[in-house]
Design goal:
With 185 residues, the protein is mainly alpha-helical. The protein has two domains: 93 residues, Rna Polymerase Sigma Factor, Chain: A (Orthogonal Bundle), CATH 1.10.1740.10; 67 residues, Winged helix-like DNA-binding domain superfamily/Winged helix DNA-binding domain (Arc Repressor Mutant, subunit A), CATH 1.10.10.10. It is built from eight helices and no strands. The chain is elongated, with a radius of gyration of 19 Å. It starts with a helix and ends in a 5-residue tail after the last helix.
């Protein structure tokens, strides 16, 4: 980003944070246009449901709009928006248990019986759906999406150690669940 673009963005962020009625809506609209795709992609990684991700993106920006005074420019808008989006996705996961959508994009095993591979994929997806939302979010972001623990921690508002614990617990529960359903490594 060039200095001129950075200055414009800083000006927009300042107008947004101040909430001045004369410039606030334009600043918010600019931020929405700049970050809508990023927020949508982040939410989609968590909920694995395109329709829900669209709704949660709107919900995220509604929350951002209402809480603009809490924005801390030193932290950066994108990180703040990602945190709010993560909380919106977590709220959705707690109230609506997605069924077989979580791991739609898990690649099929290149060798072996396709029917067995499909059964493993189905059972894995169901096992993920049975995890508690806080474990599921950490496991999806850290294991499936392969995001660094530091980034997951920032998004969830927890420590890196807590992310590692949640991922460990999620994997342990997944392993146990799959073994009970006849899937072994």
């Amino acid at each position: 980003m060039r200095d001129g673009e950075r200055d414009v963005l800083n000006s927009v962020l300042d107008e947004f944070r101040r909430g001045d009625p004369a410039t606030f809506n334009d600043a918010f609209e600019t931020l929405f246009r700049l970050h809508q795709r990023t927020v949508y992609g982040w939410v989609l990684r968590i909920v694995r449901n395109p329709a829900a991700a669209e709704d949660l993106t709107v919900e995220t920006f509604w929350r951002i709009y209402r809480t603009h005074a809490r924005f801390d420019p030193s932290r950066g808008f994108e990180a703040w928006a990602r945190t709010i989006a993560t909380h919106a996705a977590y709220d959705w996961l707690r109230t609506k248990r997605p069924e077989a959508e979580l791991l739609m994009d898990v690649a099929a095993s290149p060798a072996g019986d396709p029917a067995i591979s499909e059964e493993i994929r189905r059972k894995t997806t169901e096992a993920f759906a049975r995890l508690a939302p806080k474990l599921r979010i950490a496991a999806v972001l850290a294991v499936v999406e392969e995001l660094p623990h530091k980034e997951v921690a920032a998004a969830l508002g927890i420590s890196v150690a807590a992310v590692k614990v949640r991922v460990f617990r999620a994997l342990r529960l997944l392993r146990k669940d799959l073994q009970e359903r006849g899937i072994t490594a």
